[in-house]
């Protein structure tokens, strides 16, 4: 199976999104199939793939669609916050 290669910034977003699903705060993540519950409860999507699509969004807004610009901004903001946390240790 071939998937479109993600930039490092997109990869961080994808991992963060998947982690949100896996924490299952929404109670819609199905661990066995790695999917969101079927529609109309959830979107029914295979989440390791859906979370790679930057323009996709969680049906319950736990994570949002992002433009190319927003992906880079988010990665920059996270990097700055991480540096701040390191300085406070
Ligand atoms: S896509 Fe949204 S509703 Fe579905 S499992 Fe992930 S966080 Fe939950």
Number of strands: 2
Q: How would you characterize the largest beta sheet?
A: 2 strands, antiparallel
Structural class estimated from helices and strands: mainly alpha
Q: What's the overall average pLDDT, rounded?
A: 92
Write the H/E string, N to C. HEEHH
What does the oligomeric state look like here?
A: single chain
Strand proportion: under 5%
Q: Please tell me the total number of domains.
A: 1
> Which compounds are bound in this model?
iron/sulfur cluster
User: What Rg is obtained from the alpha carbons, in whole angstroms?
Assistant: 14 Å
Q: What overall geometry do the principal axes of the alpha carbons give?
A: globular
Q: In order across it, which strands form the biggest sheet?
A: 1-2
Poorly predicted tracts of residues = none
Give me a quick take on this structure.
Helix content is 45%, strand content 4%.
Key phrases:
89 residues; mainly alpha; 4% strand; binds iron/sulfur cluster
Q: Can you characterise this structure?
A:
This protein has 89 residues and is mainly alpha-helical. The protein has one domain (8-87). Helix content is 45%, strand content 4%. It has helices at residues 8-23, 47-50, 68-87; strands spanning 29-30, 35-36. A two-stranded antiparallel sheet has the order 1-2. A hairpin with a 4-residue loop joins β1 (29-30) and β2. The protein starts with 7 loop residues before the first helix and ends with a helix. The mean pLDDT is 92. Iron/sulfur cluster binds next to α1.
């Amino acid at each position: 199976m071939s998937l479109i290669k993600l930039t490092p910034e997109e990869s961080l977003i994808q991992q963060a999104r998947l982690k949100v699903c896996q924490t299952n705060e929404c109670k819609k993540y199905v661990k066995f199939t790695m999917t969101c519950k079927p529609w109309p409860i959830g979107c029914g999507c295979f989440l390791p793939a859906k979370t790679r699509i930057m323009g996709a969004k969680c049906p319950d807004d736990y994570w949002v669609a992002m433009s190319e610009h927003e992906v880079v901004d988010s990665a920059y903001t996270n990097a700055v916050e991480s540096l701040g946390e390191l300085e406070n240790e």
